[in-house]
Amino acid sequence: MSQHAAALLSPTAAPEEQWIVTANALADGSVRYLTSARTWTGDLQQAWFGPASAAEAMLVWSRAQEAVVCDPYILALDRVEERLVPRSQRERIRAEGPRPTLRRLGYDAGRAEPVRHAV
Amino acid sequence: MTLLAHEAGVARVIADDPWITLGPDETLDETLDEASDVIVPLEGLDRVRPVARGRVGLRVPGDADADAVAARLGGVDLVQIELPRFTDGRAYTLARLLREKHGFRGELRASGAVLPDQLHYLARCGFDSFELADGGSVEDALAVFSDLSQSYQPAADGARPAWRRRRPVS
Amino acid sequence: MYTYDAFDQRMVEERAAQFRAQVVRRLDGRLTEDAFKPLRLQNGLYMQLHAYMMRVAIPYGLLSSDQVRRLARIARDYDRGYVHFTTRQNVQLNWPRLEDVPAILDELAEVQMHAIQTSGNCIRNITSDPFAGAAADEIADPRPYAEILRQWSTFHPEFAFLPRKFKFAVTGAREDRAAIAVHDVGIRVVEGEGGAIGFAFYVGGGQGRTPILAPCIRPFVPERDLVSYAEAVLRTYNRLGRRDNKYKARIKILVKQTGAEAFARLVEEEHARIKDGPLALTDEDLEPFKRAFRPPPHAVMPAEDPPELVAARLAKDRAFAHWERHNVSPHRVPGYANVSLSLKSRDLPPGDVTSEQLDAVAELADRYAFGRVVVTHRQNLVLTDVARRDLPALHGALAKLGVATPNVGKLTDVVCCPGLDYCNLANARSINVAQDLLARFEDLSALHDLGDMHLNISGCINACGHHHVGHVGILGIDKQGTEHYQLMLGGSSGDEASLGRILGRALTGDEIGGAVERVVVAYLQLRESPQEPFLATYRRLGPAPFKEAVYDAVGA
Fold first, then answer.
1. How many Cα atoms occupy the beta-carbon half-sphere of B90 within 13 Å?
2. Complex prediction ipTM
3. Residues of A with CB under 8 A from a CB of C
4. In terms of residue numbers, what domain contains B46?
5. Does pTM surpass 0.90?
6. Per the CB < 8 Å rule, is A97 touching C50?
């Protein structure tokens, strides 16, 4: 039985360690994750993941992507029931956006889109 | 490595630099004409200066003490200050002290971690010439040198404080 | 207030054009991120957790109503409709796009603003007393001196790559409201013999990892030597400050390791060489700066309270009474007052303001306060020079805007950095702690008159929330991947400045709010009278009873 299937069958199974590559976008600083197609996504669940050695190799490639992202780095996280789960609060907040709700504005600061300036 | 200099607020490339750089152990008679203009590190100065018939330049690190450097400037026509990292700003103070405290009138040259966007500040602190670090674009260096056409404070360039030349908005 | 002439205007326009070209070079690959980073930082542009953050300078915290309106517009057009005021009297945009930053700089330049040196290891924005020019206890208006120092430090070619960042604060009042003891250089205006104006220089204070109160290295620097003495201090620091360890690179470490007296001698030696050079200030140099900050045209008011004010108080309007008591402070001109706008409500993170609020504040400033708004280092706004007869009407307008919470200087006037919700350096969130405390004490502080009680929260050791000088300070730390908070008591940034002491073990996010509550309850039981403020009680009794109150409940 694969580790994968074991995790599915047993909800108490130990989380498996996986590594990802993440960075911030050059254009707007938004959180980016490297995908297996070597593109960048803002959705952690779409991220490529693998062992540390493979992540190191992906990082070398990512460092050459200066036209798209800034300061890429690799990161260990847990894969639990097919979901990638950050280990640190910092990475949880990076994945989900800032937490404070701006009651007066009626929206969540992390999710609302800016009003784009007419160019 | 490209050498740049500035005059009247404009930077230009120096194609025919007469100065030859010697390492700590090199002496004139081995490879060079005694009439060459040579830049030597501090530890080579006493060896080279007596035999040199050309001009002598002194190379010092950016963290050198200005008073100590000034004590060795007799017969020296150029001081080359080497910036270890572009974020290490001691060379700027060293240059100003050599100019303003010790009255050094020869050429001040910046080398090492010299990036295009720094040249303007270096010039204002008294540097005449700059060895651009590898990877720095010469075109950019020439272009950005004149980004700021004026300054608020006096420096080694003799600028007057802006508060002494104010003009009201028309 | 100081207005730009053609020279100043060209300066900010050239800077905007310069940065525009730098952005182009970054986007087309001519500049690597490593090479671009220091350039963008010297223009106040950081990379934070989710986006760029752009810090805009507000010299000595003073804004015109037009500048306030422009900030509102920039936040609306290029950001998400709100801005954040910082503990250094600056303002931050949380979500600018890189390609928009040059346009933002152009917009700022149009209203005589910029982001020059709001980051990087250079001389940063110069802060001052928020009541400057309007305080009842002022020796001289500090802003002319802050402005001349701003000009001297702007694009200073020698001090762009200091060992570490460098912060000035200047105060002209007898009571220190500018926290000069915890700045790299704190300058206090003093009167010398025969009433001559001079400056006491406090050098080498700071917070962060190694909090130190600055020693006074020279009690009287003559007015003419203000700039030359500052230059001598900076040159000494640039030569000798440590560069081998980022955490030991601030001037406070140099002053401490050299010894204040020996450091002062080094400065004196350099100053003696340069003081009669071009930096020496003449009366003609200073006059335009002093003229720029002449008081606005106050009307002559009767000494007694105006009928509007008396009527409002008689109406037994408790909201107005609380507000007048806590948010209104004395002005040096009879019939006028200084009004603080509280940016501490449960609606927004501390220091955050929406574009709509900014526009409305600008209108109120025009109507009631000669078109001026001041940002304070406690992250509030101040309208100076408000006629006392206008207070009831102004209160009504401010209450509608949600900035009349009667809590200025009180426990719920929480000072708070952006923390881990936004900041790349943070170890823990701070906004959620602030909002929890605001909720807990919303009623309590109205019920009991707690008096002055400053609560400061930082999300990391860098201490942007000034936790060391909060009467109650909270420092967020990371302990094995979870947020914890150190609680410290007894700090103060005012006269008799002191640094807070850690009370006990770090507390979890679930514990910290209750712990502060227990400190407050203990204080209410321990104080000698309602007139004894928290800090006095703490200084009288020390930490022990507070420690007991907190840790008996949660375990040591």
1. 21
2. 0.95
3. 24, 26-31, 66-67, 70-71, 87-90, 93-94, 97-100, 102-105, 109-110, 112-115, 117
4. 2-164
5. yes
6. yes
